[in-house]
Amino acid sequence: MPCDQIKQILKDGGALLDVRSPREFAGGALPGAQNVPLNGIANALKDLPKDQPVLLYCRSGARSGMAQRFLVQEGFEAHNIGGYSQFAHC
User: Fold this and answer.
1) How far is it, in rounded angstroms, from Cα 27 to Cα 77?
2) Residue 50, phi then psi, degrees to nearest 5
3) Rg (Cα) of the chain, in Å, rounded?
4) Facing residues of 79 across strands?
């Protein structure tokens, strides 16, 4: 997903979730991202917007892919944008 598309989704009210560990998150994260580690995604459902897209990322895209599949099953519009380093420049 291109940076401009990510920025527009966020500007329009979408959520940005970093599903890495708190330690990884503390080492650097995308601006505006919430840290919701993959193992806590089910507990965060009540806090996520069902009427707006949810963008997910991790280190490589694997964990965010798992989170994306789970959220879609739960009725969310979720997008795996991949790895942190791909978008650190956005």
Assistant:
1) 28
2) -80, -15
3) 12
4) 55
Assigned CATH for 3-87: 3.40.250.10
Structure tokens that stand for 72 in this block = 């879609």
Q: Which residues of 12-40 are buried (b: 16+ CB within 10 A; e: fewer)?
A: eebbbbbbbbeebbeeebbeebeebbbee
pTM: 0.93
Per-residue pLDDT band at 78 (split at 50, 70, 90): very high
Average pLDDT score, the chain: 94
- Residue 6 burial (C-beta neighbours within 10 Å; 0-12, 13-18, 19+): buried
What pLDDT band is residue 54 in, cutting at 50, 70 and 90?
very high
Q: Which are the catalytic amino acids? A: 58
